[in-house]
Write a structure and sequence with these properties.
This protein has about 350 residues and is of the alpha/beta class. The protein contains 11 helices and 14 strands. The chain folds into 2 domains: about 150 residues, Glucose Oxidase, domain 1 (3-Layer(bba) Sandwich), CATH 3.50.30.60; about 150 residues, 3-Layer(aba) Sandwich (Rossmann fold), CATH 3.40.50.10740. Helix 10 runs parallel beside helix 11. The protein is globular.
């Protein structure tokens, strides 16, 4: 159902109303909330770092890929892995058929768990997102995942997988590249230091910072530290009310989505607020939300995001390169990070793999 804001409404009047309403609804968190202590009794488990010669499993826990994408994109990605000394191993059920699912739920779950339990597989990079991870969550053996820690990576629908693994197994997982996307220079630059430090030539971990004053936008200033949680906005809200609901307490929450109309993003953001989720975060990082055409309303995506988040009075940075963009930053779920919204900078403070 679309909100009743038509083009003939005066823009300035509407935005003033929107901002005033948001300010009255949000309860500003105390200063203590921005530095609240770690809720977990122990730090997360780190998967082993990738090493030359390691095998990388490529399953399809959600949707499959079309034949032309397999030939063009996936083969290009696997060549990139081989170029840095890794050995790709592709699951049997990755090709798209007549369904939006790569294979029946039981098959996708079994193939994923085979890679988890296989001692010869050093890491798992999902072939793509699409849809289907939520259907197999009850079929996954999280005890086995915890006992066989290894890199698990993907974005989009894989948001449900990597966050659940962190929540259930206390294991750092990665919102990052998939095999059906290009491993371009930017993506490689912000992926390999996190998971394959030997390829960078660095002998020890050093905090990793990203900033871009020309592209990043600050919606609300300040500085805060917390553990990284998040991913695709649609998936984060879809998990609410399920046994796989994501705990955002004390987190640096990052969100992204593409092709959604502004009022739909407003609805999802409002759902997170009504559930008290946004108020639990110490900082928020927004990706490059792309907006579907909606000629009926004057409200833009940026106006929606600002109106929902700025009144929280916590650091908020927007236009960050992650998720559904060609050049993407890898977010290690569960790692401590610092967001400096004034300097438009994010720093990963801890290693995300065992060096």
């Amino acid at each position: 159902m679309k909100p009743p804001v038509k083009k003939n409404m005066k823009r300035r009047s509407f935005l003033a109303t929107l901002g005033a309403a948001a300010s009255s609804l949000y309860a500003a968190p105390s200063l203590a909330a921005q530095s609240q202590p770690e809720k977990r009794l122990f730090p997360p488990t780190l998967p082993p770092a990738l090493k030359p010669g390691m095998k990388i499993g490529i399953p399809a826990p959600a949707s499959g890929v079309a034949k032309e994408d397999f030939e063009r994109k996936v083969k290009s990605f696997t060549k990139s892995l081989e170029g840095i000394g890794l050995v790709p191993v592709i699951a049997k059920s990755v090709m798209a058929g007549s369904s939006y699912l790569a294979a029946p739920d039981e098959v996708r779950a079994a193939e994923f768990m085979e890679f988890v339990k296989n001692k010869d597989i050093g890491g798992i990079i999902c072939i793509r997102g699409g849809y289907g991870v939520m259907r197999i969550l009850p079929m996954l053996d999280f005890e086995a995942i915890q006992q066989n820690p290894k890199l698990i990576c993907g974005f989009s629908d894989i948001t449900a997988l990597v966050n659940t693994i962190y929540q259930r197994c206390n294991l750092v997982a990665f919102h990052g590249p998939v095999a059906a996307a290009e491993l371009d220079d930017f993506t490689r630059q912000w992926f390999l230091p996190l998971v394959y430090p030997e390829s960078t030539g660095k002998p020890r971990f050093e905090p990793l910072s990203y900033s871009d004053s020309t592209k990043l936008v600050s919606y609300s200033g300040g500085k805060a530290r917390g553990r990284i949680i998040g991913g695709n906005l649609t998936l984060i809200t879809a998990l609410m009310g399920t046994p796989y609901d994501i705990n955002l307490s004390g987190s640096v929450l990052f969100l992204e989505d593409v092709g959604e109309k502004a009022y739909k993003v407003d609805r999802m953001m409002t759902q997170l607020w009504l559930a008290g989720k946004l108020q639990q975060c110490v900082a928020i990082v927004l990706g490059q939300f792309s907006e579907a055409e909606d000629s009926s309303y004057v409200t833009t995506m940026e106006e929606v995001l600002r109106s929902r988040l700025a009144p929280l009075k916590i650091p908020v940075i927007a236009n960050f390169p992650l998720g559904h963009v060609k050049e993407k930053f890898t977010m290690p779920i569960g790692v401590m990070a610092e967001v400096d919204a004034d300097a438009k900078k994010i720093t990963l403070l801890e290693p995300s793999v065992q060096w």
